[in-house]
Design a protein that fits this description.
The chain is an alpha+beta fold. It has three domains: about 220 residues, Rossmann fold (3-Layer(aba) Sandwich), CATH 3.40.50.620; about 70 residues, no CATH class; about 120 residues, Phenylalanyl-tRNA Synthetase, Chain B, domain 3. Helix 6 packs across helix 9.
Length: about 450
Amino acid sequence: MEELFKRHIARLVPQAQAKKFLLAVSGGADSSVLAYLFDYCGLSFAIAHCNFHLRGEDSNKDMELVRKKAKQYSVSYFEKEFDTLSYQQKEGLSLEMAARELRYDWFAEIDQDFDFVVTAHNANDNAETFLLNMTRGTGLKGLTGIPEQNGKLLRPLLPFSSEEIRRFAVEKGIEYRNDASNFTEDFQRNKIRLSVIPKLKELNPELISIFTRNIDLLRRQFQYYQQQMGGTISSVMSKDNDTIYISISNLKKCEDPALVLYEILKDYGFNPSMVGQILDTTGKTSGKYFFSSAYQLVKDRNYLLVSHRDKRQEREIEIREVKDLETLGFSVEELKMGNIQKFDPNPAILYVDVDKLKFPLTLRHWQEGDSFHPFGMRGKKKLSDYFIDHKISLLEKKKILLLCSEEKIVWLVGLRSDDRFKIDNQTKKYYKITYYGSI
């Protein structure tokens, strides 16, 4: 493994002997082997350790072991202790994402004297990422796994499986600690690791090596796809100052106009369902608007024009008829009572009595003093209190949208509907409104 790694790092980083590396070492098998291999190759490195204080005394023992390794290899050592749970609650993040943000923000503070920051992601991590992306919904890029290099970030253990790494650690007598949290299914990745991958290995014991080969092939295919798509996009899109011009006539000449339009608009926050709606307007009259979180798109006579959103539109968008919602990332169905089996409890879906909505509606961000009548509850509640009760972070609050009728809140979009607009025994027709966008 030492010689395989030496050849791999030489390919990955030309003139690696002249570079300085900052290794993220947790004390587990992967990062402990990483430190051993860098020392074996005679590379210049330092060690950085994050103590997230999530496992009580075990977290402190991990830190002690990593300190010991830094002394063993006679390298510089950096450590940082975090109150991860407080940060998670403050920012409203998952525990995994909170730890990730803290880790990489700290690396950015200390990496100025280093050419690369190195993590110990392995082939199993890559397979888990592939499967996670599949379950969440992804384009081709999401199937290319974890990149070996992303700017200063380097992951040289990706060719090696966790089984290979652990066997090597035992053979070489490399001391490491097991993280018990890796063996519970509290996190999505652990469910993939502990339940899904073992089942797939029953079908093929060589699953990880096959994933590694397939991910490498998909990465190369994606690079080729990007090159080809880049040429197509340049024939369709141009830019003048801060406005993007998409030629409708050239777009229609493309073999797959919807795919080309998606590749252009995804970087501006427009999702696939909105792209389909935009494409449908290309043969219609001008003046139709679509919105993402930071951009607006308007259908002109010959072009689709993309520019930063008007600040006035960020405050409030007027919806003159229900179909206008479809330009904003919503889908709308008008249905009659009597055909219902059951309502979908998904908070991204609103069921609302047609007769209780008064147009024009408005779509806006929340303001201090706003209140509504939460569905299923009696009386009104301030939104600020609702956000506190549901541990919604400041960052999330800024993104929340309100659908309003005659100044009354109909829906905290994607969160909770208002009881005053619910379907009842008097309802004859209702709208099923599903939100796909991210305004």
